[in-house]
Predict the structure.
Amino acid sequence: MRSAPLKRNSLFLLLIVASSLAPAGFAFAHHGWSWTQSGYFRLSGVVREAYVRNPHATIDLDVEGVVWRVELAPPGRTTAAGVNEDLLAPGTDVVAIGNRSRDDTETRLKAVRIIVDGRNYDVYPDRAAGI
Amino acid sequence: MVDDQLAAMLRALSESGPAQMLRTSFVVYPVVNALHVAAIGGLFSMVALLDAKILVPGWRGGRGLDERVLRHIALICMGIAVSTGFALFSVQPVDYAVNPAFRTKLVLLALALANAGILFLTSNRASPGRQRLQAAVSLAAWIGVLMAGRFIGFV
């Protein structure tokens, strides 16, 4: 097999590339609710940064010095609920109600409702009825 | 994670006009996303047929399939998949760059492409055994690319 060394070299190169790509401790968006606890959880904090765009809408909420990642509905749905980045300017007081991660060490909440300035914004209206 | 120079490039990409448009359009983004999925579907179909022609010698229907046509369609689909993939990547490049599923996808993609290149370039002199091995590697690698791609949003 004349080309065997070529193949071996390619595989070797790929292994080097693969080994340099050590997994990072980065958590992306969560789809569905299976990763959340069943009871509602309430967070009260200050917006550090809000992202209401594709592919996932999120708020980084400063809750007494701890930053929580609040996941909203898909951006189109979130916007339809009246939530946008202007509403969530940094420094805005926000209450987020939803389901937190099953992993208690993870400061992550999937929001059903957020409250800004005393007004409810239900990003998952069908679920918000249960609050 | 990612070095400073790469991070600066990724930030510049995310601030480009098309990236900003993709972030805020709830129509264009899903359309690009759908094209990406369609192109991958086409590409995977062609790859699976090409591999099946090698792996299933007694498969009568396979003989009628022109490999050049299958490869041609595969390349077109690859072009669409890569360009739409790059567009989707541009929306949150810094986040994707450190996403383990995305990194795994790129590694498997490189493996699949290298394997396909070698298989194509040595097709007239490689032993049937090695061709079958490479066809099997091809199927496994491309399925891996699909799986890793799907996991990007879940890890």
